[in-house]
Design brief:
By secondary structure, the protein is an alpha+beta fold. Helices cover 27% and strands 23% of the residues. 28% of the residues are buried.
């Protein structure tokens, strides 16, 4: 019988909404004993060994050796691969198995439940949740101090491992960490804890961390959750619209003076309003934004979600909402708050409401 382990159990909560409002992308969270009675049904050392001999290398799938902080894919199959693993293990290398959401049913089900919990709350993911397992010898460390561009949920299944987590140096990164992180550039650790079998640890993206074993070996699984970021959503939206694919005009004198970032901050609001007006002049569908017509399917945050699902933004989001649509087809356009000064005008015919942290909107019918 495969375990029925859900996202709420991993978090030690009866209500996942609290996690999204207070913890998600905001702070690490340790849940002691969350999977104490289920860990052996998720994966054992014997399961790990069996998967080693059966995996077929592929993109983001297969078995690797982590040596000197770098993962190297293992060659060979069956007993030949086991010999390579034994040799690496004697050298205190960590053995990594990736893509287990595709090869191990218990982890596939856990990953699927996490995806479902994000979906029903209107939080889009850039890709499916992935699962990697790590077997680390005693007195060893796998990867060097680093951060990830995804959030991590660590399931400690056997033995123990000490984790050290620091505040971000690159807040909410989109790209992977490609540079060494020095302890001198970090503040004191936010968390130092020893994960024991049955514990679960949540690490937000961008938080530098390291993990090492002491007297005993360790087997843990890391579930990786990568959300769609506003940077990616806005970039994709702009690239899909010819108006935003035009070159920056000759009015960009600020750029010539060497303060391009300031120029874009000052001009972004005006350009967004101009873009909305342009859409209003060309639209024929009849959905309204104030006194300006705009296609409902052009709204940045007007995605096709379930009508019963509220839209929730991460804590700290600095957003403004443009209301548009009619009674039978309402909607909204949410943009950075810096756009609000130019957009909040009677001339533009736009209704805008700002909140400093997050905005909740109901979905359209």
């Amino acid at each position: 019988m495969f375990p029925q382990i859900g996202f709420a159990q991993l978090l030690g909560l009866s209500d996942c909404d609290w996690f999204f409002e207070n913890v998600w992308e905001c702070e690490p969270r340790l849940v002691s004993g969350a999977i104490e009675g289920s860990k052996d049904r998720i994966m054992t050392l014997d399961d790990f060994e069996a998967l080693l001999t059966s995996s077929i290398p592929g993109e983001n799938v297969g078995s690797s050796v982590v040596e000197a902080g770098v993962a190297r894919m293992l060659d060979g199959r069956g007993s030949e691969r086991l010999l390579l693993v034994e040799e690496a293990y004697r050298k205190r290398c960590t053995i990594l198995q990736s893509g287990l959401q595709l090869r191990w049913v218990p982890l596939a089900r856990i990953c699927q439940d996490i995806e479902n919990q994000f979906f029903i709350r209107g939080v889009p993911l850039a890709e499916g949740v992935t699962a990697n397992s790590y077997l680390t010898p005693a007195h060893s460390q796998g990867f060097d101090l680093h951060y990830d561009n995804h959030c991590a949920i660590v399931l400690q299944l056997h033995g123990s491992k000490k984790w050290t987590i620091f505040a971000p140096v690159d807040e909410l990164p989109v790209e992977r960490c490609t540079r060494p992180i020095l302890l001198q550039e970090l503040d004191a650790p936010l968390m130092e804890t020893r994960l024991c079998a049955g514990d679960v640890l949540y690490i937000p993206r961008g938080y530098p961390h390291s993990a090492a074993t002491a007297e005993e070996i360790s087997l843990h699984v890391t579930l990786s959750v990568r959300p769609v970021t506003w940077a990616e959503a806005i970039c994709a939206f702009c690239e899909s619209e010819p108006l935003f694919r035009k070159s920056v005009t000759r009015t960009s004198n600020g750029w010539a003076r060497g303060n391009g970032q300031t120029f874009f901050r000052e001009c972004l609001a005006a350009e967004v309003v101009r873009y909305v007006r342009e859409l209003g002049r060309t639209d024929t569908r009849g959905d309204k934004i104030g006194t300006t017509s705009v296609p409902a399917d052009k709204g940045l945050a007007h995605s096709r979600r379930r009508k019963t699902t509220p839209r929730q933004h991460p804590a700290g989001a600095d957003l403004a909402r443009h209301s548009f649509g009619n009674r039978t087809r309402p909607g909204s356009l949410e943009v950075p708050r810096l756009c609000s000064s130019a957009a909040d005008s009677d001339e533009a015919g736009i209704s805008i409401h700002c909140r400093s942290r997050r905005i909740h909107t109901g979905d359209a019918a």
